Amino acid sequence: MTSAYGSTLPSYGSKRDVGKALLQTLAAPSNAVRDRKAPQDWNAAFNSHVTISDKDKNKSESQRDASNRLIKELDQKTKSKQADINRRLQDRITTVSYWKQRLTTEHASICQEITNLTMSKQKTQQALASTELPTEVSTNCLKNRENRETIDLVQDLVDDELLNELNMLSEVQKLLSARIMGTDERLRALNDCKSSLELDIRDKEECLRLDEHCYKLNNGTAGLQAVAQPSLYDAHSSTVEKHEEFSQVNLEKSEIARVMSCLQRELNDFSINKSNDELQKQSELVGAMFRLRLKELTEAKTGLEGQLEKTNLEVTSVEDSLHQLREALRGKEGPLKVATTRFAVRAKRPNVEQTRDFVHGGLLSEINDINASQESLKQQIACAEETLHKLLKNKERLQQDISIKKKSIQIDEQQCLRLRKTLSWRGFRPAGM
After folding, report:
1. Spatial separation of the C-alpha atoms in residues 61 and 183, rounded to whole Å
2. Is the N or the C terminus of the chain less surrounded, counting Cβ atoms within 10 Å?
């Protein structure tokens, strides 16, 4: 079958199918006819609109009931919350007042401790200043003893103890300086705690003022205004635990600082007393060493003077002996001349008379003996002269050593001991301690 449009229609099994196909064929070249809905779609749309309307109505009724209940509940909640806040404000005022009282008490204690530690520092500074004179005296004693000469310029017990005294004074000065530095640290810690307490007390006072003002506010208070976005303040707030922990930490730091300050004061007093006792003992030991050294010097000078007297006697004896030896040497010149002359004369005998007889042998023996005697005497004279020279040198050394001992005695007795006596050692304990 051929249509007016020149296309062939497909074969269908029923008239309905033929009608649908015809409609589709007619709709193909033109959109003039819109989409068609099925009856069941129409029924579904109707039922949906009815159901949605019922739901909205029921929801509106529930919403109105909920709104009424919410108004009542929120009103009751607001009143209850406001009453609870008033009670909490009262509790908070009591709590803050308690912490403020503790902080105020601790502030008074730490102020008193600052005063006590400052006095301890002043005493320690006075003790440190009092070490200057003993240091100067010991240094001058060492300088004076440097004027000793030659063999007496010895590192003796006096020098050792003077150096020990200077070392002890230096250690004491370092110790007291360290105590002063430690005291300064403790004072800084106390002042830091004092500042923290004062800041905390001021904050507590401001907090009490604001909370008491808030406690007095009510719904009828004039001039109230709503604060926009109060949540902005949350970033600067802290918890109750942190608030109490902050004050507790300040109190604990202050208490620890006071305990450390008390220990520092005890340490200062102990250092002053112990150092004073040790230096006083050392001063007494130095004086004993001076007296012992003076005794040794005096005994040495006396011994040297005895040796000088013996040496003078021995010099006289050696000079006498040397004179005798020289006289003996001169006495050998005559016999030697006689013997050598005889030998020379007999050497002129003629011819066979020039024999080695007993006289010839005797003259040779006599000349040799006299020469040997002269040589012995010369050696003995040389030894005696050397001995005399040594005795004279020893005499000079003894005289010089005696002079040195006298000077050493004068330095130790007249300069050093007299200087230490003018010190009138009483230690460096400050007045009033």
Report:
1. 81
2. N
Identify the residue whose tokens are 């007619």.
26
> pLDDT-based confidence at 227, cuts 50/70/90?
low
Residue 117 CB partners (closer than 8 Å, separation 6+):
183, 186, 187, 190, 261, 264, 265
* Average pLDDT for 119-140: 92
Neighbouring CB atoms inside 10 A of 107's CB total: 19
In 3D, which of 110, 425, 132, 117 has the Cα closest to residue 269? 117
Backbone angles phi, psi at 8, to 5 degrees: -95, 130
Both tokens of 249, joined, read 């930490």
Instruction: Extract the tokens encoding 307.
Output: 């040796």
Residue 147 to residue 355: CA distance in whole angstroms: 80
- Three-class HEC string of 39-104: HHHHHHHHHHHHHHHHHHHHHHHHHHHHHHHHHHHHHHHHHHHHHHHHHHHHHHHHHHHHHHHHHH
* Average pLDDT, integer, range 193-218: 92
Helix-helix angle 358-410:333-346, to 10 degrees? 150
Q: Is the pLDDT of residue 432 over 50?
A: no
